[in-house]
Amino acid sequence: MFESKAGVMLIGGVGFFLLAFVSNALVPIFMYHKMPELTIQQSVNDNLMFQFEDLSQRFPEPFKQAYGEPTRENAAKALELGRKIYVGEGCWHCHSQFVRPVSNESKRYGPVSKSIEYQNELQRPVMFGTRRVGPDLSREGGRRSNDWQAVHFFRPQSVSPNSPMPEYPWLFDGDASKPNERGLALMTYVQWLGSWLESYPYYEDYIPVEGAAR
């Protein structure tokens, strides 16, 4: 059997599977098994705080009602809730969070994903995804303004005419200028994606507000 063409292909297939398992599963485990996972609080960085404070300025009344002040503690709360909403609304069905090491992936979505990026509570479970009805979102943070994100969630086709994405009016209280707590949380989570990278847009004039510093 193993001398036949089918046998060779079987052995080759099993061999490639084992190689992929070792390189993509076992090697990262051995590399990072002593490195503790970052908590949600530890995952809040200055890039995210810029976006969180921007949300408080663009949507002052809804933000005040939902989160009060743009502190790091409140950002962590919004980030945790935002991820739950992202999962609950099924965003991961149409968006992956893994830039693959294949041709032109990095040109379309940004730097190829690294194992260490997933060593935090917000990546449990990891939403690598396989379908891309919409673009990969692992580098989405900072690419577009919070105003754009709000309009996109409220009525996607108004900013992306051919988008198959459904509308999410329940994330708002009436219109796109009034995101509720859930809407603000989801935008916080989306702006967090990729915020740990050097390629994230840098804001030279950013000064953390009182209570938001490290």
What's the helix and strand layout?
Elements: H1 5-32, H2 46-58, H3 60-67, H4 72-88, H5 105-109, H6 146-154, H7 181-192
Helix pairs in contact: 2-3, 2-7, 4-7, 6-7
Could you describe the 3D structure shown?
This protein is mainly alpha-helical. It has 2 domains: 1-34; 38-192, Cytochrome c-like domain (Cytochrome Bc1 Complex, Chain D, domain 2), CATH 1.10.760. 43% of the residues lie in helices and 0% in strands. The chain is built from 7 helices and no strands. It has helices at 5-32, 46-58, 60-67, 72-88, 105-109, 146-154, 181-192. The longest helix has 28 residues, at 5-32.
Keywords:
214 residues, 43% helix, globular
Task: Give a nutshell description of this structure.
With 214 residues, this protein is mostly helical.
Major sheet, described briefly? none
Sheet-strand content, in percent, reads under 5%
Instruction: Give the CA-CA distance, first to last residue.
Output: 64 Å
User: How many helices?
Assistant: 7
The helix-and-strand class reads: mainly alpha
Give me the oligomer status: single chain
Top-tier CATH class of the largest domain: Mainly Alpha
Shape: globular
